[in-house]
Amino acid sequence: MENTRKILDELANLYPSAQPALQFKSQYELLVAVILSAQCTDERVNKVTAVLFEKYNTPEKMLTLTQEELEKYIFSCGFYHNKAAHILSASRDIVEKFGGEVPPTLEQLKTLAGVGRKTANVVYAVGFGGDAIAVDTHVFRVSNRLGIAEGKTPDKVEDALCAVIPKELWSKAHHYLIYHGRQVCHSQKPDCVNCTLKAYCKFYSSHV
Question: pTM for the complete prediction?
Fold first, then answer.
């Protein structure tokens, strides 16, 4: 717990302006962008949604597209078959079950067809200001390497992070860990030499 506090303090110093990289103007646009971001860069998603949201920025408008038509817009994001299906399924649920508005609670978000735990957490935290930690590849990797939350699945890491990080810091910690994963703790070649967290890092201590 002591190391976790020191790590969070240092991450806050390193990334004081950490914020979502996805561009959106509504909770619905955020939801679609997060679905598209799976195994895709935020930069690529932003380029795709800049075009897509010009005409299809509400669930009602999105549902005027066939899956094949939507796939043409999002092709470059990868896994476009599944992503298109998820976007349309979630849009249909939003219209039919929630009057066209993205539901504001974590429990309701998780009921949307095509919306998984990570997506629901991001939309809840970023779109509605809720307390949640979404575990993407960066959060998963950095948490395990630092040793603050070890687990073999994203769900296990999320549970472990929530257990050691104060609830009011969950959303911020999510962005801190993403930034650190992108800028320092890279997947293939982590920059351990220049990492200011190496004194607390389990990965570093086992490799020196």
Answer: 0.92
